[in-house]
Amino acid sequence: MSKKVIVLGEVRDGALRNVSFEAIAAAKKISGGGEIVGVLIGDSVQDLGQELIQYGADRVVAVEHPHLKYYTSDGFGQAFMAVHEQEEPEAIVFGHTALGKDLSPKIAAKLQSGLVSDVTEIEGEDDDAVFIRPIYSGKAFEKVKINEGPVFFTVRPNNIEPLAQDAGRSGDVSSLSADIQNLRSVVKDVVTKATDGVDMSEAKVIVAGGRGVKGPEGFEPLKELADLLGGAIGASRGACDADYCDYSLQIGQTGKVVTPDLYIAAGISGAIQHLAGMSNSKVIVAINKDPEANIFKVADYGIVGDLFEIIPMMIEEIKQLKVNA
Protein backbone atom coordinates (compact mmCIF):
# COMPACT_ATOMS: atom_id res chain seq x y z
CA MET A 1 0.00 0.00 0.00
CA SER A 2 1.33 3.44 -0.92
CA LYS A 3 2.03 5.89 1.92
CA LYS A 4 2.43 9.63 2.04
CA VAL A 5 5.67 10.25 3.97
CA ILE A 6 6.81 13.56 5.42
CA VAL A 7 10.54 14.04 5.97
CA LEU A 8 12.03 16.72 8.19
CA GLY A 9 14.88 18.49 6.42
CA GLU A 10 17.45 19.66 8.93
CA VAL A 11 19.19 22.98 8.36
CA ARG A 12 22.46 24.06 9.92
CA ASP A 13 24.21 27.36 9.17
CA GLY A 14 21.93 28.02 6.22
CA ALA A 15 22.54 24.66 4.51
CA LEU A 16 20.80 21.30 4.51
CA ARG A 17 22.53 18.52 6.44
CA ASN A 18 23.32 15.32 4.54
CA VAL A 19 21.10 13.28 6.86
CA SER A 20 18.11 15.08 5.30
CA PHE A 21 18.87 13.41 1.96
CA GLU A 22 19.45 10.05 3.64
CA ALA A 23 16.04 10.37 5.33
CA ILE A 24 14.41 10.95 1.92
CA ALA A 25 16.05 7.76 0.59
CA ALA A 26 14.70 5.86 3.61
CA ALA A 27 11.25 7.36 3.03
CA LYS A 28 11.29 6.20 -0.60
CA LYS A 29 11.99 2.66 0.55
CA ILE A 30 8.90 2.43 2.76
CA SER A 31 6.52 4.65 0.76
CA GLY A 32 5.30 2.05 -1.74
CA GLY A 33 5.40 4.70 -4.44
CA GLY A 34 3.52 7.25 -2.32
CA GLU A 35 4.27 10.96 -2.16
CA ILE A 36 7.37 12.19 -0.32
CA VAL A 37 6.85 15.62 1.25
CA GLY A 38 9.86 17.49 2.62
CA VAL A 39 9.40 19.79 5.61
CA LEU A 40 11.61 22.80 6.33
CA ILE A 41 11.36 24.79 9.56
CA GLY A 42 13.22 28.02 10.33
CA ASP A 43 13.17 31.76 9.86
CA SER A 44 14.44 31.72 6.26
CA VAL A 45 14.50 28.23 4.76
CA GLN A 46 12.13 28.18 1.78
CA ASP A 47 14.94 28.69 -0.73
CA LEU A 48 16.40 25.30 0.27
CA GLY A 49 13.27 23.45 -0.85
CA GLN A 50 14.39 22.71 -4.40
CA GLU A 51 17.50 20.94 -3.11
CA LEU A 52 15.32 18.50 -1.15
CA ILE A 53 13.35 17.87 -4.35
CA GLN A 54 16.56 17.24 -6.30
CA TYR A 55 17.33 14.47 -3.79
CA GLY A 56 13.96 12.76 -4.14
CA ALA A 57 11.21 14.74 -2.40
CA ASP A 58 8.11 15.30 -4.54
CA ARG A 59 7.29 18.66 -3.00
CA VAL A 60 8.25 20.72 0.06
CA VAL A 61 6.34 22.63 2.73
CA ALA A 62 8.25 25.39 4.52
CA VAL A 63 7.23 26.93 7.85
CA GLU A 64 8.94 30.25 8.52
CA HIS A 65 8.62 32.42 11.62
CA PRO A 66 10.97 34.71 13.56
CA HIS A 67 10.64 32.41 16.60
CA LEU A 68 12.03 29.53 14.51
CA LYS A 69 15.44 31.09 13.85
CA TYR A 70 16.92 28.84 16.54
CA TYR A 71 15.69 25.39 17.49
CA THR A 72 13.42 24.93 20.48
CA SER A 73 11.28 21.84 20.95
CA ASP A 74 8.21 24.01 21.59
CA GLY A 75 8.60 26.13 18.46
CA PHE A 76 9.61 23.35 16.08
CA GLY A 77 6.99 21.06 17.61
CA GLN A 78 4.20 23.56 16.87
CA ALA A 79 5.50 24.12 13.34
CA PHE A 80 5.79 20.40 12.57
CA MET A 81 2.34 19.63 13.96
CA ALA A 82 0.88 22.35 11.70
CA VAL A 83 2.38 20.55 8.69
CA HIS A 84 1.21 17.17 9.98
CA GLU A 85 -2.37 18.42 10.37
CA GLN A 86 -2.33 19.75 6.81
CA GLU A 87 -0.70 16.73 5.16
CA GLU A 88 -2.10 13.83 7.27
CA PRO A 89 0.77 11.47 6.37
CA GLU A 90 0.98 7.74 7.00
CA ALA A 91 4.71 7.92 7.82
CA ILE A 92 7.29 10.34 9.27
CA VAL A 93 11.10 10.29 8.98
CA PHE A 94 13.61 12.38 10.96
CA GLY A 95 17.39 12.26 11.16
CA HIS A 96 18.74 10.75 14.38
CA THR A 97 20.62 13.93 15.24
CA ALA A 98 20.60 16.07 18.39
CA LEU A 99 17.55 17.87 16.99
CA GLY A 100 15.83 14.67 15.84
CA LYS A 101 16.47 12.87 19.13
CA ASP A 102 14.91 15.76 21.03
CA LEU A 103 11.94 16.48 18.77
CA SER A 104 10.82 13.01 17.62
CA PRO A 105 9.65 11.71 21.06
CA LYS A 106 7.67 14.93 21.57
CA ILE A 107 5.90 14.49 18.22
CA ALA A 108 5.32 10.76 18.84
CA ALA A 109 3.72 11.56 22.19
CA LYS A 110 1.43 14.17 20.60
CA LEU A 111 0.40 11.68 17.90
CA GLN A 112 0.17 8.79 20.40
CA SER A 113 2.26 6.74 18.00
CA GLY A 114 5.23 4.44 18.29
CA LEU A 115 8.75 5.53 17.38
CA VAL A 116 11.62 3.45 16.02
CA SER A 117 14.78 5.44 16.73
CA ASP A 118 18.35 5.22 15.43
CA VAL A 119 17.63 3.05 12.38
CA THR A 120 20.80 1.98 10.55
CA GLU A 121 19.29 -0.30 7.90
CA ILE A 122 15.94 -1.13 6.34
CA GLU A 123 15.26 -4.66 5.11
CA GLY A 124 12.46 -5.17 2.62
CA GLU A 125 10.24 -2.43 1.25
CA ASP A 126 6.79 -0.88 1.57
CA ASP A 127 4.59 -2.71 4.12
CA ASP A 128 7.20 -5.48 4.52
CA ALA A 129 9.90 -3.06 5.73
CA VAL A 130 11.87 -4.22 8.77
CA PHE A 131 13.85 -1.58 10.66
CA ILE A 132 17.24 -2.55 12.12
CA ARG A 133 18.67 -0.57 15.05
CA PRO A 134 21.61 -1.15 17.42
CA ILE A 135 20.90 -1.83 21.10
CA TYR A 136 23.06 -2.37 24.20
CA SER A 137 25.64 0.15 22.98
CA GLY A 138 26.00 -1.57 19.62
CA LYS A 139 26.59 -5.06 21.01
CA ALA A 140 23.35 -6.38 19.47
CA PHE A 141 20.84 -5.40 16.79
CA GLU A 142 17.07 -5.28 17.03
CA LYS A 143 14.70 -5.88 14.11
CA VAL A 144 11.41 -3.98 14.31
CA LYS A 145 8.33 -4.36 12.11
CA ILE A 146 5.45 -1.92 12.43
CA ASN A 147 2.13 -3.74 12.08
CA GLU A 148 -0.34 -0.94 12.77
CA GLY A 149 -0.54 2.79 13.27
CA PRO A 150 1.68 5.43 11.65
CA VAL A 151 5.26 4.58 10.69
CA PHE A 152 7.63 6.95 12.54
CA PHE A 153 11.38 6.43 12.64
CA THR A 154 14.71 8.27 12.79
CA VAL A 155 17.76 7.35 10.72
CA ARG A 156 21.33 7.42 11.98
CA PRO A 157 23.56 9.67 9.82
CA ASN A 158 25.95 7.99 7.36
CA ASN A 159 24.11 4.67 7.23
CA ILE A 160 21.50 4.94 4.46
CA GLU A 161 22.78 5.91 1.02
CA PRO A 162 21.06 9.04 -0.32
CA LEU A 163 19.62 9.07 -3.83
CA ALA A 164 21.75 10.66 -6.54
CA GLN A 165 21.09 14.39 -6.88
CA ASP A 166 19.08 15.24 -10.00
CA ALA A 167 19.72 18.91 -10.75
CA GLY A 168 17.00 18.88 -13.42
CA ARG A 169 14.28 17.76 -11.01
CA SER A 170 11.87 20.41 -9.76
CA GLY A 171 8.67 20.56 -7.74
CA ASP A 172 6.39 22.76 -5.69
CA VAL A 173 7.78 24.52 -2.62
CA SER A 174 4.90 26.00 -0.64
CA SER A 175 4.75 28.11 2.50
CA LEU A 176 2.59 27.28 5.52
CA SER A 177 1.75 29.92 8.09
CA ALA A 178 1.87 28.72 11.69
CA ASP A 179 1.16 30.70 14.82
CA ILE A 180 4.18 29.97 17.02
CA GLN A 181 3.19 31.07 20.52
CA ASN A 182 3.39 30.35 24.25
CA LEU A 183 7.04 29.30 24.01
CA ARG A 184 8.41 28.30 27.39
CA SER A 185 11.92 29.18 26.27
CA VAL A 186 13.28 31.53 23.63
CA VAL A 187 16.85 31.31 22.31
CA LYS A 188 18.19 34.85 21.82
CA ASP A 189 21.59 33.93 20.43
CA VAL A 190 23.87 30.93 19.93
CA VAL A 191 27.61 31.22 20.50
CA THR A 192 29.54 28.26 19.11
CA LYS A 193 33.18 27.35 19.41
CA ALA A 194 34.97 27.84 16.13
CA THR A 195 35.63 24.48 14.50
CA ASP A 196 37.44 23.89 11.24
CA GLY A 197 36.76 21.18 8.73
CA VAL A 198 34.03 18.58 8.42
CA ASP A 199 31.06 18.00 10.74
CA MET A 200 32.06 14.88 12.69
CA SER A 201 28.56 13.36 12.76
CA GLU A 202 28.44 13.33 8.94
CA ALA A 203 32.14 12.80 8.16
CA LYS A 204 33.12 9.94 5.86
CA VAL A 205 36.55 9.78 7.51
CA ILE A 206 37.39 10.35 11.18
CA VAL A 207 40.86 10.39 12.72
CA ALA A 208 40.54 10.05 16.50
CA GLY A 209 43.14 10.36 19.23
CA GLY A 210 43.29 9.00 22.77
CA ARG A 211 45.55 9.38 25.78
CA GLY A 212 48.36 8.03 23.62
CA VAL A 213 48.70 11.39 21.85
CA LYS A 214 50.25 12.61 25.14
CA GLY A 215 49.05 16.22 24.89
CA PRO A 216 47.24 18.86 22.82
CA GLU A 217 50.22 19.08 20.44
CA GLY A 218 49.81 15.36 19.74
CA PHE A 219 46.59 16.12 17.88
CA GLU A 220 48.39 18.27 15.28
CA PRO A 221 49.59 15.36 13.07
CA LEU A 222 46.14 13.78 13.43
CA LYS A 223 44.54 17.01 12.18
CA GLU A 224 46.93 17.07 9.23
CA LEU A 225 46.02 13.48 8.34
CA ALA A 226 42.29 14.23 8.67
CA ASP A 227 42.63 17.28 6.40
CA LEU A 228 44.45 15.22 3.76
CA LEU A 229 41.67 12.62 3.83
CA GLY A 230 38.87 15.22 3.85
CA GLY A 231 37.79 14.02 7.28
CA ALA A 232 37.14 15.18 10.83
CA ILE A 233 38.97 14.92 14.14
CA GLY A 234 37.59 12.95 17.09
CA ALA A 235 38.79 11.89 20.52
CA SER A 236 38.29 9.38 23.30
CA ARG A 237 36.97 10.47 26.68
CA GLY A 238 40.41 9.88 28.14
CA ALA A 239 41.91 12.50 25.84
CA CYS A 240 39.13 14.95 26.68
CA ASP A 241 39.44 14.35 30.44
CA ALA A 242 43.18 15.01 30.18
CA ASP A 243 42.46 18.41 28.53
CA TYR A 244 44.16 17.38 25.31
CA CYS A 245 41.12 18.60 23.35
CA ASP A 246 37.58 19.93 23.73
CA TYR A 247 34.74 17.66 24.85
CA SER A 248 32.90 18.50 21.61
CA LEU A 249 35.24 15.99 19.94
CA GLN A 250 34.39 13.13 22.30
CA ILE A 251 33.22 9.89 20.68
CA GLY A 252 31.61 7.17 22.76
CA GLN A 253 28.71 6.24 24.97
CA THR A 254 28.70 9.65 26.65
CA GLY A 255 29.81 11.50 23.52
CA LYS A 256 28.91 11.30 19.85
CA VAL A 257 28.01 8.10 18.01
CA VAL A 258 29.59 8.01 14.54
CA THR A 259 29.57 5.61 11.60
CA PRO A 260 32.12 6.87 9.05
CA ASP A 261 33.43 4.88 6.09
CA LEU A 262 36.91 5.00 7.66
CA TYR A 263 37.77 5.39 11.37
CA ILE A 264 41.43 5.73 12.32
CA ALA A 265 42.01 5.28 16.07
CA ALA A 266 45.41 6.53 17.16
CA GLY A 267 46.57 5.90 20.73
CA ILE A 268 43.12 4.73 21.83
CA SER A 269 43.01 1.67 24.08
CA GLY A 270 39.43 0.73 23.19
CA ALA A 271 37.39 1.04 26.38
CA ILE A 272 33.87 -0.34 25.95
CA GLN A 273 32.42 3.17 26.34
CA HIS A 274 34.45 4.36 23.34
CA LEU A 275 33.63 1.33 21.22
CA ALA A 276 29.92 2.06 21.74
CA GLY A 277 30.40 5.25 19.75
CA MET A 278 32.37 3.96 16.75
CA SER A 279 32.23 0.15 16.47
CA ASN A 280 29.75 0.32 13.56
CA SER A 281 32.21 2.23 11.38
CA LYS A 282 32.62 0.52 8.01
CA VAL A 283 36.43 0.19 8.21
CA ILE A 284 38.40 0.64 11.46
CA VAL A 285 42.18 1.13 11.52
CA ALA A 286 43.81 0.97 14.97
CA ILE A 287 47.28 2.25 15.85
CA ASN A 288 48.59 1.38 19.32
CA LYS A 289 51.87 0.36 20.93
CA ASP A 290 50.13 -2.27 23.07
CA PRO A 291 49.41 -5.43 21.00
CA GLU A 292 46.83 -6.46 23.64
CA ALA A 293 44.84 -3.21 23.40
CA ASN A 294 41.10 -3.83 23.24
CA ILE A 295 40.74 -1.61 20.15
CA PHE A 296 42.33 -4.36 18.03
CA LYS A 297 39.36 -6.64 18.74
CA VAL A 298 37.07 -4.44 16.63
CA ALA A 299 39.66 -3.20 14.11
CA ASP A 300 39.70 -4.35 10.50
CA TYR A 301 43.37 -3.35 10.27
CA GLY A 302 45.75 -3.06 13.21
CA ILE A 303 49.18 -1.43 13.39
CA VAL A 304 51.28 -2.14 16.49
CA GLY A 305 53.65 0.76 16.87
CA ASP A 306 54.23 4.37 17.92
CA LEU A 307 51.59 6.67 16.45
CA PHE A 308 54.18 9.49 16.28
CA GLU A 309 56.15 7.37 13.79
CA ILE A 310 53.23 5.84 11.92
CA ILE A 311 51.01 8.91 11.42
CA PRO A 312 53.81 10.96 9.72
CA MET A 313 54.52 7.97 7.45
CA MET A 314 50.84 7.80 6.49
CA ILE A 315 50.80 11.55 5.82
CA GLU A 316 53.82 11.37 3.54
CA GLU A 317 52.45 8.33 1.68
CA ILE A 318 49.08 10.01 1.08
CA LYS A 319 50.79 13.22 -0.09
CA GLN A 320 52.84 11.15 -2.54
CA LEU A 321 49.74 9.36 -3.82
CA LYS A 322 48.05 12.72 -4.38
CA VAL A 323 51.06 14.05 -6.29
CA ASN A 324 51.09 10.97 -8.54
CA ALA A 325 47.31 10.92 -9.07
Automatic annotation (TrEMBL):
High-level lineage: Bacteria, Bacillati, Bacillota, Bacilli, Bacillales
Family under the similarity heading: Belongs to the ETF alpha-subunit/FixB family.
Keyword Electron transport: yes
Segment forming the signal sequence: none
Cofactor binding note of this UniProt entry: Binds 1 FAD per dimer.
GO terms for MF: electron transfer activity; flavin adenine dinucleotide binding
GO BP terms, alphabetized: fatty acid beta-oxidation using acyl-CoA dehydrogenase
Source organism (scientific name): Bhargavaea beijingensis
InterPro entries: DHS-like_NAD/FAD-binding_dom, ETF_a/b_N, ETF_a/FixB, ETF_alpha_N, ETF_asu_C, ETF_asu_C_CS, Rossmann-like_a/b/a_fold
Record: residues binding FAD: 211, 236-237, 250-254, 267-274, 288
Protein name: Electron transfer flavoprotein alpha subunit
